[in-house]
Amino acid sequence: MYDMLQMLPKIVNMTLAASFAGCVVLLLRAVLRKVPAGYFYALWLMVFLRFLCPFTWESAVSLIPVRGDAVTYKSFVSAGVNVYAGVSAALPADSVIRKIPAAAGNMGVDYGKLLVGFCAAVWIAGMLVFLAFTFRSFLRLKKQVAEAVVLYPAGKGQARVYESPQIDSPFLLGLLRPVIYLPAGMKEEERQHVLAHEYQHVRRRDYLIKPVCFLAVLLHWFNPLAWLFFRFMTEDMERSCDDRVLKNMNAQERAGYAQTLLRLGLRNNGMGYMLPAAFGESNTKKRISHILSFRKPSVWLCAAALLLVVGAGAVLLTSPSAKEGEAQEEEGGMTAGPLEGEALAAGLSDKRNPYIGDHIRDAALFGMLPVPETLEYRKMELQTTQEPYELIMVYGLRENADMPRKEWSFSNAVLLFASIENAGKISYAVEKGAEEYRVTYDRSDAEAIFGPLYAYSADKDKMMELQRLLSSYMGRGITIEAGEEKIYTLDSEGNRIPGQAELDGEPEKTGEESEPEQTDNLPVRMELDKEVYSVKEPVLIMTIENLSDQNLTFGDPYDLLREEGGEYRLVPMKENTGWHDILNVILPGGNTEQKMDLSVIYEGLDPGNYMISKSAVLEDEDGEAGDSIVLSIPFVLY
Question: Distance between terminal CA atoms of the chain?
């Protein structure tokens, strides 16, 4: 089912490329009026090949500004979501249409698939309607000629000729064994004119080519240009057959040929659009004008037109090559999302959403974020039945691609937490074969690093500040430890089988990657409100908690250390600056909070990795001071 949904963006890419190619042919057709119609007929066949062919070759000389992957499944869903949002915004709040996304989420149905599935259903329904109309017309025509009699048997390389009193205009019908049908009562001269024309169709296999082109129109029935191109292709096909007949006639014979076309064109049955070839169809007035003014083309004009067709094949049948900047992705395999930098901050702020159940805004938000090029979007899932509410993004790993590192998912999760207020968890899942690798991030863990996240999306500037915090946090070599990693087994239909296992091969956390050893397993806990601060506002809020059953005492002083060359070195204080001689006491089970503005005590702090270190003492059972405890906690200045 998913593969079928993936086909719809390919159809859109095909219709875009073919539309541009057809517009080029229309331009050439309008400018080069003296070029014989047969050469334009060849160009139209290239256009319809673009309508039918799902792949293409890349070329630096291509005139088609659309690459074969211009529209992806993800961008198709995003565009559909935006259209739906615009339509639903104009509807009443209690409209059934506006309730569809929430209902889909509660039923566990991916809204992206639902949207694309609806579009696919409309596309298929349209094809079936046009196909049914064509088949009905074909059966009606076959009924009309059911009693036709043989006029001429089939000769070598020619078709049988039948005559019927039930038709008004001659035509060619049939795929494997084409038959020419003539109306009864035609004059011998008219009959010879018609047969000369129809035999040209038979020799060129137009009875096969035109149905294939009509099939392309059925596939792209939603594109009005496809119908327009088919009309012009039919005109050039008929005119090129006229040219082949006219080049062997004198002026008097051409006038008779035009007279035959005029009489039969006025009596046509209106079915030429569907038929392989009908003598009296396709702009009779223009064809007669062309016949009366016909001049046999010169050799040099035919040679130039042939070069035109060959050159057009290079520019119409190929797509543009990827630019160097597009071919070489950013280091780490990350492709640029639809937005980045200031535009991303503005977009996330504009689409901020207090409720995770709003599929429209949720889809718009994740559509702005970058995703590794090795992944392709599959679906979005929501868990809104119980708290914490969870947003799950599911991707598929491309063939022969390596599993990406999880830093990208951590960054995206933080930005989503900042944009969706009641999202308690953000999960990113990657399907690889029969397994799904999932990492889940908790809002509380992210806010322990960056503070209250939803406040950042209040405006663009604050979102840009969060982006800088993220960049500094991840760019300082800090290992991403957040996130619970799991492996799920998938059944043949891609559904998760109950039961899960911890991710194999997860690297062991070393002493450098964990919190400082001094605070592990101690009856005292020291925490900061965030892990990343700006050098412009280095205000830290430190909480010290006494988990023991004894009093905890500590003084006002603390040490600030900066990492240099893999070691932490003491940062000197400003001149004429000192500490207050104050003794702080925390009772058992109690805690205290201290606010520290580093800019008051230290001067010229640069971005980097820092550590706060403080000494504290637990009283022994007799109330006397015991051994000193060193409390340390790292943080980052950017």
Answer: 48
**What average pLDDT does the segment 461-483 reach?**
71
Q: For residues 138 and 130, is the Cβ–Cβ distance under 8 A?
A: no
- Which helix (H) or strand (E) covers residue 268, if one does? none
223-248 confidence digits (pLDDT tens): 999 999 999 998 888 888 888 888 88
What is the torsional sign of CA 93, 98, 101, 102? positive
- Which candidate, 322, 426, 335, places its Cα nearest to that of 374? 335
Which region holds residue 198: left if phi is over 0, alpha if psi is between -120 and 50, else beta?
Answer: alpha
More confident residue, 328 or 231: 231
In sequence order, what are the residues at sequence separation of 6 or more whose Cβ sits closer than 8 angstroms to the Cβ of residue 230? 48, 213, 214, 216, 217
Token representation of residue 15? 């219709």
Q: Would you call the peptide bond into 388 cis, given omega within 30 degrees of 0 as the criterion?
A: yes
Per the CB < 8 A criterion, the answer to whether 163 and 169 are in contact is: no
Q: State the pairing for strand pair 334-335/318-320.
A: unpaired
Query: What whole-number distance in Å separates Cα of residue 554 and Cα of residue 557?
Result: 9
Rounded average pLDDT over 218-226? 94
Q: How far is CA 31 from CA 34, 37, 40, 419, in A?
A: 9, 13, 12, 54
Q: Which two tokens stand for residue 427?
A: 């999960």
Rounded Cα–Cα distance for residues 9 and 5 (Å): 8
Distance of alpha carbon 104 from alpha carbon 606, whole angstroms: 50
Q: Taking each helix axis from N to C terminus, what angle separates 341-350 and 407-419, rounded to the nearest 10 degrees?
A: 40
In DSSP terms, which residues pair with 490 in a beta bridge?
496
C-alpha separations of 494 from 28, 116, 135, 426 in Å: 50, 18, 38, 21
Amino acid at 35: V
Nearest to 240, CA basis, from 6, 65, 39, 379: 39
pLDDT tens per residue across span 300-311: 888 888 888 788
Q: Could you tell me which residues are beta bridge partners of residue 567?
A: 564
425: helix, strand or coil = strand
Report yes or no on whether pTM surpasses 0.70: no
Residue 322 corresponds to which tokens in the numbers above?
A: 């990827």
Nearest to 546 by CA among 592, 593, 594, 589: 589
Determine the Cα–Cα distance for residues 628 and 631; give it in Å rounded to an integer. Answer: 10
Closest Cα partner for 290 from 250, 246, 237?
246
| Token output for 601 | 């005590």
Each domain of the chain, given as residue ranges in start order, spans 1-316, 341-492, 524-637
Question: Which comes out higher in pLDDT, residue 247 or 220?
Answer: 220
Nearest to 24 by CA among 45, 3, 47: 47
Fold of 524-637: Immunoglobulin-like (2.60.40)
Are 198 and 151 spatial neighbours (Cβ–Cβ below 8 Å)? no
Residue-wise pLDDT for 275-302, tens only, equals 555 554 556 777 777 777 777 777 888 8
Please say whether the beta carbons of 16 and 225 come within 8 A: no
Q: Sheet of 171-173: strands edge to edge?
A: 149-152, 160-164, 179-183, 171-173, 277-278
113-117 own/partner pairs: CB under 8 Å, 24+ apart: 113/2, 113/5, 113/379, 115/77, 115/80, 115/81, 115/84, 116/5, 116/8, 116/73, 116/76, 116/77, 116/80, 117/5
